[in-house]
Amino acid sequence: MGEKGGFCGEKMFFGEYQYKVDEKGRVPLPPKFRREMKEAVILARGTEKCIIVYPLAEWKRLADTLAAKAVTPANLRKLNRTIFGSAFRTSFDRQGRITLFSPLRSYAEIGDTVVVVGANNYVELWNEQLWKTEKATAEEQASQIMESLGA
Q1: Which domain, by its residues, includes 76?
Q2: What does the pLDDT read at residue 5?
Q3: Any idea what DSSP says for residue 60?
Q4: Whole-angstrom Cα distance, residue 42 to residue 53?
Q5: Which CATH number is 13's domain given?
């Protein structure tokens, strides 16, 4: 019988979890996720109103990918400012918690609870109501997206 949620040996995060955010703005991540993120993590703004948690290796891969894209220098500077200027590096404390920095928490409208969503090679942190809305929209469009991919 398979597990609901977790991490596969192929750097794949999956599942949905809900946690309380403590008074200092810290939240735990599932133990299965932490094992892959033990070195450090990068927290950044998602394009939707969420926080993305990248393992350090995945963050470096994203940076390399962006540097290799054929965009004008002005557009690359704007993109770099947006992505890297709002990012924070952090590590887990002894209880497996990370700090959700205030600018990111405000952006994602995260209050006392957070929904942790595995999203393949990274993790997303959501406000519960915003997640319900996003999840419903994604579920409505998933079959069409799969068909367009030929899957």
Answers
A1: 6-149
A2: 53
A3: H
A4: 6
A5: 3.40.1550.20
What is the pLDDT, as a whole number, of residue 15?
Answer: 95
The number of domains in the chain is 1
Q: How far apart are CA 3 and CA 15, in angstroms?
A: 9
Question: Which secondary-structure segment (H or E) carries 26?
Answer: strand 26-28
pLDDT band at residue 8 using 50, 70 and 90 as cut-offs: very low
Rounded to whole angstroms, how far apart are CA atoms 62 and 67?
A: 9
Please tell me the distance from the alpha carbon of residue 60 to that of residue 102, in angstroms, as a whole number. 24
> Are 107 and 36 contacting, i.e. CB atoms less than 8 angstroms apart?
no
Q: What is the mean pLDDT of the chain?
A: 88
Neighbours of 11 (CB within 10 A): 13
pLDDT at 151: 57
128 within some domain: yes
Residue 52 contacts residue 148 (beta carbons within 8 Å): no
The rounded distance, in Å, linking the Cα atoms of 136 and 104 is 23
Model pTM?
A: 0.86
pLDDT of residue 35: 85
